[in-house]
Amino acid sequence: MNSHKPLLAPLAAALVIACGTAVWAQDDRAPLPAAKQAGDITYVTGGVAYEEVPAFKDAKRDYPLAIEIYEKAGSKNQFTADTQVKLIDKEGDVVFDAQADGPYMLVKAPAGQYKMEATLNGRTVTKQVTVNSRGTANPVVVFPQGTD
């Protein structure tokens, strides 16, 4: 029985290190920014700070619309901010109009079909978006290089 005791100390140390690393990694994460209102619609926006990105990815499942906004930068896409985002319903009414504070915008939009307009520095990208009562629509907007 005593032959197992030497193995317990390294195992215990490894567990302490692993648990400490997991706690440290979570402490590095920033919380989701405060929710905002645009008319009757609640939304959260941000993600420029790298520490916020995990919070947005985790919260995505709680929002029927998760918009990602980037600008082309050579062969890659880079984060952008200050994009004006509008959702226009089938009747042509603007049901949501708000500014994205970063590349992520989580929106509690009602189910329906929308024309989404994302405008950055006078350049507009339009997409058709269907928001369902289940799941998350995830449109990605990529502005041409030099838009910012």
Quick structural overview:
This protein is of the alpha+beta class and 148 residues long. The chain is built from 2 helices and 10 strands; from the N terminus they run αββαββββββββ.
Distance between the termini: 68 Å
| Low-confidence runs | 7-26
What would you call the shape?
Answer: globular
Helix percent reads 10-25%
Q: What proportion strand? A: 35-45%
The chain-level structural class is alpha+beta
SSE pattern, N- to C-terminal: HEEHEEEEEEEE
User: Helical stretch count?
Assistant: 2
What is the rounded Rg? 21 Å
Number of strands: 10
| Sheet with the most strands, sense and barrel status | 6 strands, mixed
SSE order and pairing:
Layout: H1 5-27, E1 36-38, E2 41-46, H2 53-59, E3 65-73, E4 76-79, E5 83-88, E6 94-100, E7 104-107, E8 112-120, E9 123-131, E10 140-143
Parallel strand pairs: 3-10
Antiparallel strand pairs: 1-2, 2-7, 3-4, 3-7, 5-6, 5-8, 8-9
Short descriptors:
148 residues, alpha+beta, 20% helix
Structural summary, described in words:
- The protein is 20% helix and 41% strand.
- With 148 residues, the protein is an alpha+beta fold.
- The strands form 2 sheets. Strands 1, 2, 3, 4, 7 and 10 form a 6-stranded mixed beta sheet that branches.
- The longest helix has 23 residues, at 5-27.
